Amino acid sequence: MNGACRGLGFAIVAALIAAALSAPASAAGWLEKNFYLSGPRYDAVLPPCDAPSALGTIQSRFSTKESRFWNSDLQIVGFDHIRQTAFRPWAENTIPRRFCSGRALTSDGRWRTVHYSIVEDGGMIGWTWGVQWCVVGVDRNWAYNPRCKMAQP
Questions:
Q1: What pLDDT does residue 25 have?
Q2: Which of 3, 64, 71, 119 has CA 20 to 30 A from 45's CA?
Q3: DSSP per residue over 61-123, as a string?
Q4: Within a domain: residue 43?
């Protein structure tokens, strides 16, 4: 008798699961629409292109990338001609980005073009703004190929 009850209980649970999985998907409920899925709220408050924190991030990450992945001691030792090339160039509800370009002096004595964007909520777990960058001629993994074109607006 105990085995029959267990079998019947299993059949009922299986039927309920099958019914739940076969039900058509419904739209978001009132609670989800008003609180849970409220959508992005961007402030579009980003540091300027020549902010020392943004340039320092590029400098630090460039050095780390070169030494860790390419066994190179190449570093950025300075920046020049930093200018904004675009601000929010796409649709209004997209993530705000400030696109910048300039020159970076590398430790081998060469001036190289650098393209970067400062992205709202692009930092660690969206806590703060982040920087995406590319130095022309040393994009060794071709992430922004050709010639860092994909790092520009």
A1: 57
A2: 64
A3: HHHHHHHHHH-----EEEEEEEEEEEES-S-TTSPPEEEEEEEEEETTS-EEEEEEEEETT-S
A4: no
* Full residue range of the structural domain in which residue 81 is found: 52-151
The tokens describing 1, both together, are: 């008798």
Number of H helices, E strands in the chain: 3, 4
Radius of gyration for the alpha carbons in the chain, expressed in angstroms and rounded: 25
- Look at residue 42 in the predicted model and tell me its pLDDT: 82
Cross-strand bridge partners of residue 114 = 102, 135
Residues 75 and 145 in one domain: yes
Cβ neighbours of residue 105 under 8 Å, at least 6 residues apart?
Answer: 76, 77, 78, 79, 80, 111, 112
- Give SS3 for 1: coil
Q: Is the pLDDT of residue 44 over 90?
A: no
The per-residue pLDDT for range 55-87, each reduced to its tens digit, is: 999 999 999 999 999 999 999 999 999 999 999
Specify whether 11 is located in the same domain as 57.
no
Span 11-38, average pLDDT: 63
* Host H or E run for residue 32: none
Domain tally for the chain? 2
Predicted model pTM: 0.73
